[in-house]
TrEMBL record:
Residues 24-110 form the Disulfide isomerase DsbG N-terminal domain. SUPFAM superfamilies: Thioredoxin-like (SSF52833). InterPro entries: DsbG_N, Thioredoxin-like_sf. It comes from Helicobacter fennelliae MRY12-0050. Pfam families: DsbG_N. This is Disulfide isomerase DsbG N-terminal domain-containing protein.
Length: 240
């Protein structure tokens, strides 16, 4: 039994290597670019493999679908399929590749943007790992509220810096100003997260805050808008 298992694993490993080699050979011969395979995943409901390849010169990544013999390879922008897991897998990969390429192209500008935001405005949550993630977030944004609910998983990887903004109108401004005002009196992660979740909650009524806190939110929101780097929220940037 042990020998059979070892044989099957060996066949899988060598077969996997052949798939990567054949795909790279086909791509390089027709594109004239030097490429490397970053990842390969088999889709469940189709005889297709999902590839992420990286240009060795520019560093840019591309999402591809290849058939069983790697004779037909297409660049993926959108994927439709009957299997939910396949759709989610491709959508997640496309998002990760887009985020990677955006960071590659704009990392210097993004680092300058976050440096321009006053340190006293940033809400730092200490994490366990070495990663550093910036999250620009609007308390009135449903996707931002959902992102906040998953903050613990990000803290497992490293520290998170939250930056509240007012992209979505008057209530966004009031809630972000309330966060800015009240966050000064809390110190540890648990208290900060509790305060954020309280104010982000859809049941929490926005109210007028001090002119100083309101002006701080307006200033930071303007800095971010004028950068033309952030067009939607939540905006998540993994600095390292």
């Amino acid at each position: 039994m042990f020998r059979i298992i070892v044989f099957v694993v060996a066949v899988f490993v060598y077969g996997y290597a052949d798939i990567k080699d054949q795909t790279i050979k086909t791509l390089e011969s027709q594109s004239g670019r030097k490429l490397q395979v970053i990842s390969v995943e088999q889709l469940k409901n189709a005889k297709l493999s999902l590839f992420v390849v990286q240009d060795k010169v520019s560093g840019y990544r591309t999402t591809l679908l290849a058939d069983d013999d790697q004779k037909s390879i297409i660049v993926v922008a959108t994927f439709f399929g009957t299997d939910k897991d396949d759709r989610q897998k491709v959508a997640k990969t496309l998002q990760e590749v887009e985020s990677y390429n955006f960071k590659l192209e704009n990392s210097a500008s993004l680092n300058a943007l976050f440096k321009a935001i006053p340190n006293e405005y940033k809400i730092t949550l200490q994490g366990k790992g070495n990663a550093l993630t910036y999250i620009i977030s609007d308390p009135m944004c449903p996707h931002c509220q959902d992102e906040l609910n998953h903050i613990d998983s990000r803290l497992e990887k490293g520290s998170v810096v939250m930056i509240p903004v007012a992209f979505l109108g008057a209530d966004s401004l009031k809630k972000s100003a309330e966060i800015t005002e009240k966050i000064k009196s809390v110190q540890n992660n648990a208290e900060k997260i509790s305060l954020l979740k309280q104010i982000y909650a859809t049941t929490h009524q926005a109210s007028e805050q001090s002119s100083q806190s309101t002006q701080q939110v307006q200033n930071v929101t303007k800095i971010i808008e004028n950068s033309h780097l952030v067009t939607s929220v939540p905006f998540v940037y993994e600095a390292n």
